[in-house]
Amino acid sequence: MKGNLMKRIIIAFVCVMIAPLAFAQTKKTKVQQTTATQPAATTETATSSTAGMVRKYEPGRTMMIDSTQGSLSFALGANARIVDNAGNAVTSPLKPGERVRVYYTGTNQSRMVERVVVED
Question: How confident is the model at residue 32 (pLDDT cuts 50, 70, 90)?
Fold first, then answer.
């Protein structure tokens, strides 16, 4: 009897120890991976303007004007537009002596024309 009681206690103890393992469930964790992208760095460039008379003009390349600041040279990029006061595109080449207003970015040796307005 003493042996049976000891066996029952051991069996009960083992069952108590194993029961939580039988009922235990594995945790399922849903991992959501997100990536944040930062906006591209932008650089703002200030547009300046000056008025003067055309001294030299090479279509698609460069132009020089005589202004109150002296003789200034500009690079003409592919996006440079030449328009009249009404905003209509000018198709004929600029001639020396024509009055213009040049809108550009950059300073000194790196002036890039954005728009040239031919004044009447």
Answer: confident
- Biggest distance spanned by C-alpha atoms of the chain: 127
The domain made up of 48-118 has a fold known as: OB fold (Dihydrolipoamide Acetyltransferase, E2P) (2.40.50)
Give me the mean pLDDT over the 27-38 stretch: 72
**Which string of DSSP letters, residue by residue, matches 44-100?**
----EEEEEEEEEEETTTEEEEEETTEEEEEEEEEEEEEEETTSPBP-SPP-TT-EE
Domain ranges of the chain: 48-118
Q: Which two tokens stand for residue 73?
A: 């040279």
Burial class (CB in 10 A: 0-12, 13-18, 19+), 12: exposed
In this prediction, residue 84 carries a pLDDT of: 93
Q: How far does the chain reach from its first CA to its final CA, in angstroms?
A: 124
